[in-house]
Amino acid sequence: MIQLKNAAQIKAMKEAGRITGEALLVAREHVREGVSTYELDHVIRQYIEKSGAKPSFLGLYGFPGSACISINDEVIHGIPSKKRILREGDIVKIDLGAHYKGYHGDSARTIPVGKVSDEALKLIKVTRESFFAGVAQMQQGNRLGDVGSAIDTHVKANGFSTVRKYIGHGIGKEVHEAPDVPNYGTPGRGVRICSGMVLAIEPMVNAGTFEVRELADGWTVVTADRRLSAHYENTVAMTDEGVLNLTLIDSEF
Ligand code: MG
Ligand code: MG
Fold first, then answer.
1. Arithmetic mean of pLDDT, 31-37
2. Domain with 178 in it: what CATH number?
């Protein structure tokens, strides 16, 4: 069942979203060659806790980190580790959430480490653009198929592929709520978009095949062809006044 949020609940979710977005800005400041994903996770946790919130992902389904940190061909759910050191030319995906006053935020970015390939830069750019193409379809009376189709169409037009096995979701008192928000779909089909819906829209885009597989650690998802993958996510709320982006702090990021 879809839990629609009233104005007071959306106001509370703005706070969780702000902390979530700020934690990503803090993490970005620490992305550089030689830094471990454990160190990134540590600064994220410190920032979220200093803000009076809790990391949404810590312990979620048993996840051991405060953030999912995934490098290059890793799509999502990378486990922070002292052994994973960022290298020049890597792209690193940081996916995190803050739990504050009963509500969660959820947001992800893909960040280049130093100078990266032209393909990596294009992949990051197209993934981000596809999110906004999807959000542009967040209009009263439209359906989630309109959102997913807009995302997938933009990705394919640029020669990349959209991950199908993992998708976006409703969010609120739980990180993962109904409805499912696929990054593909058929225009005019699916759940009707209405005021009070709060969604985590999160295209995961691969340079090669859309197919993915899970590593033996039980968490890390990689591209089946081991080519690059990028991720971009914000928590957005549909209101009578239009769409609010709850986790976007720096409009350029
Ligand atoms: Mg996320
Ligand atoms: Mg999410």
1. 98
2. 3.90.230.10
